[in-house]
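Moderator note: this is an archived Q&A kept for reference. The question asked for a predicted structure of one protein chain; the sequence and the answer are reproduced below.
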Amino acid sequence: MTSLAPDRYFDPDPTVRKLARTLYDSIADLPIISPHGHVDPALLADENATLGSPADLFIIPDHYVFRMLYSQGIALEAVGVKPNDDGWVETDQRKIWQIFADHFYLFRGTPTGAWINEELVTLFDIQQPLNGENAQAIYDQLEEKLAQPAFRPRALFERFNVEVLCTTDAATDTLPHHRKLQASDWQGNIRPTFRPDSVVNLEFDNWHENIDLLSEASGITVHSYTTLIDALQERRSYFKEMGATATDHAALTPFTVSLSPLEAEAIFQRALKGEATPHDTERFTGHMLLQMARMSIEDGLVMQLHPGSFRNHNDALYRRFGRDKGADIPIAVDYTHKLRPLLDLYGNDDRLTLILFTLDETAYGREMAPLAGHYPSLLLGPPWWFYDSLNGMNRYFDLVMETAGIYNTAGFNDDTRAFASIPVRHDLWRRASANWLAGLVARHIVGEEEAHEMARAMAYELPKRAYRLE
């Protein structure tokens, strides 16, 4: 039988464990604030939408899952990931599920394994550990549940007690699903987030086509750097009208640089002609981060920056399957020097909220916590991607909180495409936070009443404040 220990993730020391349980119990049922993630708004725009098959839910869209399988020699096509060349891909959902179950042991001790186990137990009442022998019986149970109205996305949204969920949407997106949500009688609070990477990062796939889409969406023909800025400002205004409170930006590094209008125009014109160099690309992206910060001061949208991922490291896989196929690898990042041009201009302006993320844990204590502990504009986002785990959270608490304090952080966001995993991800954060705070109480660093206030802030209040969702 599968069971979830009520004190899972807590310290084995009985004094700390008891304190952790008390703190956790006080925050366990707080509403979920999900201010950054990648759930498809179409799931919630259609009241009759479903989560699909068990394979659709747990395997095919989840790069955490199929990257592990791929690392053990299992072809992506075999688990339903479609190649660009329209070659063979497995479409038998039960076969995909069987492969997954046969290899589920690979996820032992990983956060993905913990999330899926907890989803199976708490959401679907699956009481047996998943393996190859019981794969089809569990598939039957899941399929039966997923066909029920209670397991439709809107019903689960309410069951999960989600107060607000923010999606991530390209600058070229006209937000039809968000418009449909706003026009409906359903009361779920779903907000877009403005992501301009596809038009400001010159090396982005299909950049020229994306510029055409931006022209169409904004009503401004983008043929110059000046018209690019105008179109981006129009799009930001539209997103804000649709409820957005934040923007999101990915870059290889947090490099920022101020270009003159003439320099920016020259680079943009070279890009239009297909003649931009890697040096052009780096400088233009760095300059556009400054422009996005300037716009955030003007329109009040919170700015998120996610650097440090070498995207699509496996070139053969990228050419065959496209982006986001589990081959994104962390790199070392310099925040102190590369972010300084932005901070020189805007770091002391408390009208800007810039939430920093990292995939370089060595930067937490060395650079990020000291920066956030000084500049009024900076907050630190939670452990991200590879470090969204119990150990990653514990290291974050140890490396960040002592220097920056919890109130210079943005609380937690789940950053997930896997809709059904939202509550278990937030539950892990709440348990990890409670356990860390219990350790502070046990060592007489903070009092128990203070720890309760901090626990509530970390679970609920900090993300609401950081993302201006009050």
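Archived answer notes: The chain has two domains: 14-49+152-466, 50-150.
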